[in-house]
TrEMBL record:
Superkingdom: Bacteria
Keywords for the protein's UniProt record, in alphabetical order: Kinase, Metal-binding, Transferase
Transmembrane region(s): none
Listed name of the protein: Carbohydrate kinase PfkB domain-containing protein
Start and end residues of each Carbohydrate kinase PfkB domain: 64-357
Origin organism lineage: Bacteria, Pseudomonadati, Pseudomonadota, Alphaproteobacteria, Acetobacterales
InterPro entries named in the record: Carboh/pur_kinase_PfkB_CS, PfkB_dom, Ribokinase-like, WH-like_DNA-bd_sf, WH_DNA-bd_sf
A single Gene Ontology CC term: cytoplasm
Provenance organism: Acetobacter senegalensis
Gene Ontology molecular function: hydrolase activity, acting on glycosyl bonds; kinase activity; metal ion binding; pseudouridylate synthase activity
Entry-linked PANTHER family: CARBOHYDRATE KINASE PFKB DOMAIN-CONTAINING PROTEIN (PTHR42909:SF1), ZGC:136858 (PTHR42909)
Length: 370
């Protein structure tokens, strides 16, 4: 965890003392640091607010953790038996599974061995109960998933063509409009103490704006997934508060002018001051199961990996997000992390599941070209 950019000298001194002795009293801290006890209490409150301490008893935040905020849904997929014909019924075979961008990312992360929390909302129905229990069994901390009484769990319906490309997607996600800034405040100790926060654009615009505004003064770095071209519009005016944007060609077109402004801002910062990782911005554009472009202020790289027989592209982009963030957490460079992420996306596209059932980090690494 890098604290230099968000802590002052007194906060660093106090945090160092607590790391060496989590049971130290405020009076002993005051004497050791040469400060008044009320001043120490104020600094401890600030360390808690910034996510370096968790509540009382000076419980230090767990390192290497990612919080996912956004969609959790039931995915229903129908594969057409022939070419789609508009205006009439089309024969198809169907299946259902658990989905939602943030939910998919959180499960992928947990299966990679990453400490992961999900903040989301489900309905008070059987679908919601099963979704939460499934994630809990997969290793995701679901204490931040709220149940909205009188509402139905979100549902996404995908109609796939014979070649498994998406023909049309339909979503009933009104429940996500109930997620508010207060929802995030209720989970704030969990969110603010994370290394990375990933949020998807299923969240209301005001929630995304508030989250991007909180990033500058806190320890976490913020990644956002656009979800769709329609929902990507919510990010207009917010990109400067985002560290890493995950998008697609279609979604990026909606933000074209915004992305140019962010790129120019990155280059200006690079000329005017020393490089600062927390002030850099990057965009990862997903072109398909085996291809992406990663753009920073310094360079643009296109990465590609071989893809097997594509079964379903629905969860591939979410696998990319999880693979990239988990690798960044391990200390990989952005390019290295994206390489692992696109490998995960390619692997996920070969299965009909939103998350590959055999997923582990070593499984992905063994399948990637060397």
């Amino acid at each position: 965890m890098t604290s230099d950019k968000v802590l002052n000298d007194q906060e660093k001194l106090i945090l160092d003392c607590i790391e060496r002795n989590p049971f130290i009293s405020q009076q002993d801290l005051a004497e050791h640091c040469g400060l008044a006890r009320p001043t120490v209490a104020t600094y401890i409150a600030q360390l808690t607010r910034k996510g370096f301490l968790l509540g009382r008893a000076y419980v230090l935040a767990r390192s290497e953790r990612i919080v996912c905020i956004g969609g959790a849904a039931i995915d229903r997929k129908y594969r057409l038996a022939g070419p789609m014909i508009g205006g009439t019924s089309n024969p198809a075979s169907g299946s259902s599974t658990f989905g939602g961008v943030a939910r998919n990312v959180s499960e992928n992360l947990a299966r990679l061995g990453t400490n992961t929390n999900l903040v989301s909302v489900v309905g008070d129905d059987e679908d919601g109960q099963m979704l939460v229990e499934y994630l809990r069994n997969a290793g995701v901390d679901v204490s931040g998933v709220q149940t909205q009484h009188g509402a139905a769990t979100a549902e996404y319906v995908a109609v796939l063509q014979e070649d498994n490309d998406l023909a049309v997607g339909i979503v009933n996600a009104e429940i996500f409009e109930t997620v508010s800034v207060d929802t995030l405040r209720a989970c704030w100790p969990t969110i603010v103490s994370a290394n990375w926060v990933f949020a998807d654009c299923n969240l209301p615009t005001e929630v995304l704006a508030w989250l991007s505004g909180q990033r500058a003064d806190n320890r976490f770095r913020l990644a956002i997934g656009t979800v769709s071209a329609h929902k990507a519009q919510k990010l207009r005016g917010l990109l400067d508060g985002i560290d890493l944007l995950f998008t697609t060609d279609r979604d990026a077109a909606v933000l074209k002018s915004e992305l140019k402004l962010v790129s120019r801002g990155n280059r200006k910062r690079g000329r005017d001051q020393e490089p600062d990782e927390r002030n850099s911005r990057a965009v990862v554009c997903f072109h398909g199961p085996g291809s992406l472009t990663v753009t920073t202020s310094e360079s643009t790289h296109r990465l590609a990996v071989p893809v097997g027989v594509v079964a379903d592209v629905t969860g591939a982009a979410d696998a990319l997000v999880a693979g990239t963030l988990s690798s960044l957490l391990l200390g990989d460079s952005l390019t290295e992390a994206c390489r692992f992420g696109i490998g995960m996306a390619a692997l996920t596209a070969t299965t009909h599941s939103n998350v590959h059932p055999l997923l582990t980090r070593s499984y992905v690494e063994d399948l990637m070209p060397h």
